[in-house]
Amino acid sequence: MEWGCTKCGVGIPQDREFCDKCEEKHFRKIGGFLFLPLIGLVVTAASYLFVMADTFNVMTENYSHLSANAKIFFISSLAIYIGEFLFAATVLSFFLKKKKFLPKLFIFFMISVVAIMSLNVYMLYILIPGVKIGHHELAPIFRNVISALIWIPYFITSVRVKRTFIR
Asked: Which stretch of DSSP H or E encloses residue 31?
């Protein structure tokens, strides 16, 4: 029995799914599990937009009632959210253009999200005395740690990532 390419039927070795020509076409597209981090990037960028709007609204409505430390916290948080939104947009752009540098940039982005979220919660604890850090502050950090623990190894070891972005 002879094995054939699943796309065009050309004879191929048993350990392969596609011929060289079809494999090149197949792996040039963003596909497989790569759709999940792509969707995650879109959701992350959108969530930073919503958080920026909420932070700005809270800050402008209560600015005269805020202490100096609270003002520092809200202004620095707003700056952090703007920076992370721009970073997410840059990574998303590199992802859609299938740039060679994307895997390293995506890994750095995942690490930066966890670090920046942790820094923001720490600033909240330090700058606003009496604030209790609970589930609502820590759950997003743990969710992003789990996400990073999944996607960083995937972007390092995946053949799909190498063929789609690095070639």
From this structure: none
